[in-house]
Write a structure and sequence with these properties.
The complex is a heterodimer of chains A (317) and B (476). Chain A is α/β, with parallel strands linked by helices and 317 residues long. Helix content of chain A is 36%, strand content 23%. The chains are: A alpha/beta (317), B mainly alpha (476).
Chain lengths: 317, 476
């Protein structure tokens, strides 16, 4: 696992850049990008990688920005992260699995910059560090506009090189978090929370105040517990509650009850700072016995990392 | 009598350090006992094994039963204790009494009796912070008196958590109040605490004796402690007041309530306590030995529960009876008996008599403070089981109702309030708090208020015993 300083532009050469390939499908473009990496790395089995990447592509791409997509796979036979870059003026329509920084997204605007990343099979953090560096480079809209305006692969590569961005020494929580996630406001009612649980199939929802600060969470378990507190469940004889009598009050008052009524406070959920090493997230999940960790910038909620996200990004993707 | 295993996972180095502490301390005491105090071999072995068991409860909570299992054979195989003496002193009648009560408690829970009590408190009109504290404290004390301290805190903690969750207030102060009331309440009857039934069995005290001499002292001590706690936690109580008012404004209850068929549970508890309360009358009527009916009453009730709820009978025996704790008590009573068998307790009693002069007015505060301080750090059953023979020596064979027995009882129960490890109820409550809220109370957060509460309750008990003591000895 490499942690030395790696310049983003050192991961590819101008030969691995394609400018303005119009009229191709997303799949055709990916084939071309693999061939470019394969041409520079003769030991790679291009056919196998194509199969892997296309299978991955069918699951959808990861968006760094609405118009910048990354496709990444881990492959045998390479010792470090390899990259190929393509630009498109008209934009390509691709299936999108994950939005910016990992949020769920559907079909978005056409993709104008597409980056293929091949990471070593045994490097769990490789592609995440690559995406983090790419996101840093593409933070400025002017950078992307300039990039897309070039017809010459040499210029594209040089722009990345002059930007002088490096792969981060380690993956941070913000590189792994979802930024587009369901949340409740402290002014919402219980009715909204129940609707969201039913509609979205999530097991817990963060609650934020008007400043965007995380003030608590609401969980499915707590919703049930509020209706069926411990002292009622002691009884072996269920005849007094056979028709869900304790739930009646919630039905009567849910539209008037603030969500704060069943909200759990800080001691019942886990948070990390967005700059914390991502491994800290796993540690917090295990030590606090939670399945979701909330990512904060100061007190503001900026993202969520679930245990599934963690496993998916570190051991799969 | 459920216990919480705080230290289930202990690293090997930590285990080694604790073992070293145990070995050093017990070895030092053994050397002192032999060379400085001039005890004979059997006395040194009995003191050392007893000390190891005390230290094991402090340092190896999870291994205390294993150490008791080894300690007892060590005493028997070295000839320090014989089987006959163990059989006589293992207090099987007390163990059976506790088994019966545990089954009855399981039945009461299943029948909704505790749900009914908690719902009754939640439904009360015009609840304020002070009222909540007084009612939850009073209910904790009375439930402890009626069943046992651990059952009381298990159910009262659920009430505290419910109200604190609903009102969004920190549960710690209210849980501490409830635990302290539970510990005080557990001294009110023989049912409240294993030390109560143990003292009763060894001193020949009846349930009526407890109601006459202990219950009123418990009530006065409880009132004084509650007054202290109301002042101590006034800010938190004011916050509860504020939240209750807001809630009343929205006409919101403190929790859902359902129609509980409580009558069967009520009948069971009244029947059990009634039989226990009348045990002495029945014994006199039938010409039975003192406390025979007392020990058998919970067994009869438990048997009825197991026939009535036959589908759950196995559950009551396998899950509601705390075999781990009861086996520990059984071993412990045997080990403590060794101190009497080898006449170590006799030596202690003689030394106390020699230094104090055998005057009750001096011995009562001494026994009470020793019991309180001992129980603050060591399981009160361990301390009381070892101290009973000493008190027996001091009281003499003729007196049954004697202030020293009550001093031992109050010291052991009230001393439990001093530290967070002072009683099983404390440990259970803190375990529940940690499990539910991930809150760990700092030792001194408890100790500051615990010392004040323990001191006030003990001083009041001492004052009352100073007044009632002469009446008892006159009666005895």
């Amino acid at each position: 696992m490499t942690t030395e300083t790696v310049k983003f532009s050192s991961l590819f050469t101008p030969e691995q850049v394609i400018c303005h390939l119009e009229g191709l499908t997303c799949e055709q473009l990916i084939r071309r990008l693999i061939q470019l990496i394969g041409a520079a790395n003769r030991s790679l089995n291009v056919a196998d990688i194509q199969q892997l990447v296309l299978r991955r592509e069918r699951c959808g791409l990861t968006l760094v920005r609405p118009d910048i997509a990354v496709i990444h796979v881990r492959v045998k036979g390479i010792d470090k992260l390899r990259i190929a870059v393509a630009t498109s003026r008209g934009g390509l329509s691709c299936t999108v699995a994950q939005g910016p920084a990992g949020c769920a997204a559907a079909e978005l605007s056409p993709v104008r910059l597409i980056v293929l990343m091949l990471a070593p099979l045994d490097d769990p953090a490789g592609y995440l560090r690559g995406i983090s560096a790419l996101a840093q480079s593409c933070q400025r809209a002017a950078f992307v506009d300039q990039l897309l305006s070039f017809d010459d692969p040499q210029k594209v590569w040089r722009l990345f090189d002059e930007a002088n961005h490096h792969l981060p020494a380690y993956v941070k929580a913000r590189d792994m978090m979802r930024t587009d996630f369901p949340q409740l406001h402290d002014t919402d009612t219980l009715s909204t929370a129940i609707d969201m649980f039913c509609r979205l199939g999530v097991s817990e929802l963060p609650v934020i105040d008007t400043d965007g600060d995380l003030v608590g969470i609401v969980t499915e378990d707590e919703l049930i517990r509020v209706c069926l507190p411990e002292y009622i469940t002691w009884m072996e004889d269920l005849s007094p509650i056979l028709n869900f009598e304790p739930f009646a009050q919630i039905l009567r008052q849910e539209s008037g009850l603030p969500v704060l009524e069943i909200m759990l406070f800080a001691e019942r959920y886990a948070t990390v700072d967005e700059d914390s090493p991502a491994i800290q997230v796993a540690k917090v999940m295990l030590r606090r016995d939670v399945r979701e960790v909330y990512v904060l910038r100061d007190k503001s909620l900026v993202g969520v990392i679930t245990i599934q996200d963690f496993i998916h990004k570190v051991l799969r993707s | 009598m459920r216990t919480n295993e705080f230290d289930a996972a202990m690293s090997t180095p930590e285990l080694a350090v604790r073992f070293l502490v145990l070995a050093l301390l017990s070895g030092s005491v053994a050397a002192l006992a032999y060379f400085a105090w001039g005890l004979n071999n059997a006395q040194v072995i009995s003191v050392t094994v007893f000390l190891i068991i005390i230290l094991a409860t402090l340092l190896f909570w999870t291994f205390r039963l294993a150490i008791a299992f080894i300690g007892l054979p060590v005493l028997i195989l070295t000839g320090t204790l014989d089987l006959q003496c163990f059989r006589e002193h293992c207090a099987l009648e007390v163990i059976l009494f506790l088994i019966g009560m545990m089954v009855v408690v399981g039945g009461l829970r299943d029948l909704g009796f505790f749900t009914w009590i908690i719902q009754g408190i939640l439904r009360m009109k015009g609840m304020t912070g002070r009222r909540f504290v007084l009612i939850s404290g009073g209910a904790s004390a009375l439930t402890a008196s009626a069943v046992d301290e651990v059952t009381s805190i298990l159910f009262m903690a659920a009430l505290i958590f419910q109200v604190c969750d609903v009102l969004k207030v920190r549960p710690v102060p209210f849980l501490i109040i409830s635990v302290m009331a539970t510990n005080i309440g557990s001294s009110g009857t023989m049912l409240g605490n294993p030390v109560g039934i143990l003292i009763g069995s060894r001193a020949g005290l009846t349930f009526e004796d407890f109601i006459l001499w202990a219950f009123p002292v418990m009530l006065v001590s409880l009132l004084a402690t509650m007054a202290l706690l109301l002042v101590w936690y006034r800010e938190e109580i004011r916050e509860v007041d504020k939240r209750l008012q807001q809630r009343r404004g929205h006409a919101l209850p403190l929790g859902p309530t359902v129609a509980v068929p409580y009558r069967r549970g009520l009948l069971l508890i009244i029947g059990t306590i009634g039989l226990v309360a009348l045990h002495h009358r029945i014994e006199l009527l039938l010409g039975l030995e003192t406390n025979t009916v007392l020990y058998m009453a919970p067994l009869v009730s438990a048997g009825i529960v197991m026939i009535w709820r036959r589908g759950r009978a196995r559950h009551y025996i396998e899950h509601d009876v705390e075999w781990w704790t009861l086996l520990f008590f059984l071993m412990l009573f045997g080990v403590a008996a060794t101190l009497q068998y080898t006449e170590v307790t006799n030596e202690i009693a003689l030394s106390l008599k020699h230094q104090i002069g055998g005057k009750p007015e001096m011995l009562v505060p001494l026994v009470m403070s020793m019991a309180a301080l001992g129980s603050a750090f060591v399981d009160n059953v361990i301390f009381v089981s070892a101290f009973i023979p000493v008190v027996h020596q001091l009281v003499g064979e003729t007196a049954t109702v004697h202030p020293l027995w009550w001093a031992l009882l109050f010291g052991a129960c009230f001393g439990g309030n001093i530290t967070m490890i002072g009683s099983t109820a404390n440990i259970v409550a803190l375990g529940m708090l940690e499990k539910r809220y991930r809150i760990r109370i700092h030792f001194f957060e408890w100790f500051r208020v615990g010392l004040a509460a323990g001191l006030i309750a003990s001083v009041i008990a001492w004052m009352v015993l100073s007044v009632t003591g002469p009446l008892m000895t006159g009666q005895g």
